[in-house]
Design brief:
- GO terms for molecular function: oxidoreductase activity.
- Pfam families: Bac_luciferase.
- Its EC number is 1.-.-.-.
- This protein has a single domain, classed as Alpha-Beta Barrel (TIM Barrel), CATH 3.20.20.
- Strand 5, helix 4 and strand 6 form a beta-alpha-beta unit.
- The protein is built from twelve helices and eleven strands.
- It starts with 7 loop residues before the first strand and ends with a helix.
- Strands 1, 2, 3, 4, 5, 6, 7, 8, 9, 10 and 11 form an eleven-stranded parallel sheet that branches.
- The protein has 276 residues and is of the alpha/beta class.
- 46% of the residues are buried.
């Protein structure tokens, strides 16, 4: 990797990422900011990089159906000229429920990466959203590595086996800083259940991990929510995140729940617990 990510980064919907939040994330010692559902022109990346001095900004992800590879490549080269070495382009196929044109997902990923390569986007500056073995193997072969979303440390362990020792593995993990388990699960469930438990790609991945249809019914069983959303005090949450590193991750993308609340108090407490 030619881009420094550190061990922990912050994942958030792009509309929630203000320059002020980016500055605080950098000050606290996190290594990267990940933009969820990244807009095609990536102008928000420029805004965040201009507001900060050294932190890396990554996309998690640019959707292949919504942004052409030519537009993604043009945005990459523009950002790289202005902020060399501080941008990582994360791309992914999205979900059939969200895209009317969804077809031949593996072939589409290969073609998209071919076109990025033709547009001279370096492979080590691109990562692929990947869950299953075939997509993970493609990520290792054609990009810097994989950015799995909605996964547990058990998935990270399996993903590392597929990726091999050298590819980047940067899973996303959700957290709720609350020692009341019932309250924490209640805060987590709306984001996990809608839309993710309704999307077949995520459901298939959870089934591969040993969860059942009953676990995914409604807003998710307690054991499923506990695996996908770390909760407790800062030290307990930090231990859950570190479990990904112990399982083979290089970097963990932290998403603070519930969405729509100010994540800074949680990120401050967690920075101390992670010794950033």
């Amino acid at each position: 990797m030619t881009v420094e990510l550190g061990r922990y980064g912050v994942w958030a919907p792009h509309r929630a990422l203000t320059p002020e939040l980016a500055q605080e994330v950098e000050r606290l010692g996190y290594g990267a900011i990940w933009l969820g559902v990244s807009p095609g022109d990536l102008s928000v990346v420029d805004t965040l990089l201009e507001a900060t001095e050294r932190i890396t900004v990554a996309t998690g992800i640019v959707n292949m159906w919504q942004t052409s590879p030519q537009d993604a490549a043009a945005a990459y080269h523009r950002i790289e000229r202005e902020h060399p070495g501080r941008f990582l382009l994360g791309v992914g196929i999205g979900h059939p429920e969200a895209t009317a044109e969804y077809r031949s997902p593996y072939a589409t990923m290969v073609d998209y990466l071919d076109r990025l390569d033709a547009a001279q986007v370096p492979l080590d500056r691109c990562v692929l959203a990947a869950l299953g073995p075939r997509a993970l193997a493609l990520a290792a072969e054609r990009t810097a590595g994989a950015h799995p979303y909605l996964v547990s440390a058990a998935h990270t362990r399996q993903a590392r086996e597929v990726l091999g020792p050298d590819a980047l593995l940067a899973p996303e993990h959700k957290i709720v800083l609350d020692t009341d388990a019932a309250a924490a699960r209640a805060a987590a469930r709306p984001t996990v259940a809608n839309p993710y438990l309704k999307l077949r790609n995520y459901r298939a991945n959870l089934l591969r991990l040993g969860y059942t249809e009953e676990d995914m019914a409604g807003e998710g069983s307690d054991r499923l929510i506990d695996a996908l959303v770390a909760h407790g005090d800062a030290e307990t949450v930090a231990a859950s995140l570190t479990a990904h590193l112990d399982a083979g991750a290089d970097h963990v993308c932290i998403q603070v729940l519930p969405q729509g609340t100010d994540p800074r108090p949680t990120l401050r407490a967690l920075a101390d617990a992670l010794s950033l």
